[in-house]
Amino acid sequence: MGEVLAWLLFFFVLIALLVMIVFQLMCLADLEFDYINPYDSASRINKVVLPEFIAQGVLCFLFLVTGHWLMSLLCVPYLYYNVRLYLRNEYLIDVTEIFNLLNWEKKLRLFKLGYIILLLFMCLFWMIYNALEDDEHSF
Description:
Helices cover 83% and strands 0% of the residues.
């Protein structure tokens, strides 16, 4: 039962990451179609970038602590990229450069979205697998 609860926790953290990335993509799309000004878009995105980094770090740490080595290894490249961005102070979107980097920022977030969806499906698979395995042992 503990494994299922751990996978459920991982699942909810991944859903939170997914929501943050989709929110960032929506802000960039609103900016592209002129529904929002660059200052508001940049400030909204910058508010969720650091929580996204922290959630990803917590997820990788939880995978590591619970002994799910494969999932932890799959999180390491994304975590490395986030840490590299943070250490170089390149993680915030600049208001004056947002239009020049709009396509790049959208592609970056789409890549992150695909990566998180892959992790989400793997997490869902292992959660269902462990739930069925626990159900088998209960009889």
